Amino acid sequence: GQNIDQPTEMTATEGAIVQINCTYQTSGFNGLFWYQQHAGEAPTFLSYNVLDGLEEKGRFSSFLSRSKGYSYLLLKELQMKDSASYLCAVMDSNYQLIWGAGTKLIIKP
Amino acid sequence: GAGVSQSPSNKVTEKGKDVELRCDPISGHTALYWYRQSLGQGLEFLIYFQGNSAPDKSGLPSDRFSAERTGGSVSTLTIQRTQQEDSAVYLCASSFVRAGGGYEQYFGPGTRLTVT
Questions:
Q1: Which of B87, B63, B65 lies closest to B13, judged by CA?
Q2: C-beta atoms of A96 and B45 within 8 A
Q3: Does residue B82 carry a pLDDT above 90?
């Protein structure tokens, strides 16, 4: 079967760095996405990785290792507005997105 | 419009009634997705339309659920004889084909359905 695993909840301190991990097992691989979802709102796109390595975009970076079926989202200089759920999704061989359940990130002052 | 729009934003209905949810995708996007999200849960895939191909209905939970997409644009998700377990936020997303194969999905604000 296909599955995406990520921690249910994480807590971090304002100004710090946090890494959210995602492991996956899917039928084929056509890229991995990270989305941010604030409570009561729709998900918004953060990043896309299809090749191994690190993609940096401002305070957010995303890493992919296809051989390990592993990705992480790194958030630096955390701000209170970063409190949200972070969803990992993998595009399989049929170009369907398989979604993880999301990691709820709580930022404390 | 600039983004994906959905209507209504909220819908309260009585058990057993039929409901229709509407999605207007971003102009030019060939792919359209419907998802369901219960409180505190992840996204549950329902159905996927891509261009003129037959839709992928593999995620529809029962035959009470159906969807159509007219003219390759607007889509309607219909739930017949609603049940309380149908209560959730229904999200629509659309995408285009990215060079290299990535399909970045843009989400609408969702329709919050409550079945009483």
A1: B87
A2: yes
A3: yes
Percent of chain B scoring above 70 in pLDDT: 94
Tokens 């079967």 belong to residue: A1
Q: Which residues contact B46 (CB under 8 A, 6 or more apart)?
A: B33, B34, B35, B36, B59, B60, B61, B65, B67, B77, B90
User: How confident is the model at residue B58, as a pLDDT?
Assistant: 87
Task: Look over chain B and give the mean of its residue pLDDT values, rounded to a whole number.
Answer: 90
Residue to mutate among B6, B41, B43, with most A CBs inside 10 A, is: B43
Cβ–Cβ < 8 Å for B35, B46: yes
Q: What is the radius of gyration, based on Cα positions, of chain B?
A: 14
B27: Cβ contacts below 8 Å, ≥ 6 apart: B73
The closest of A100, A59, A60 to B42, measured between CA atoms, is: A100
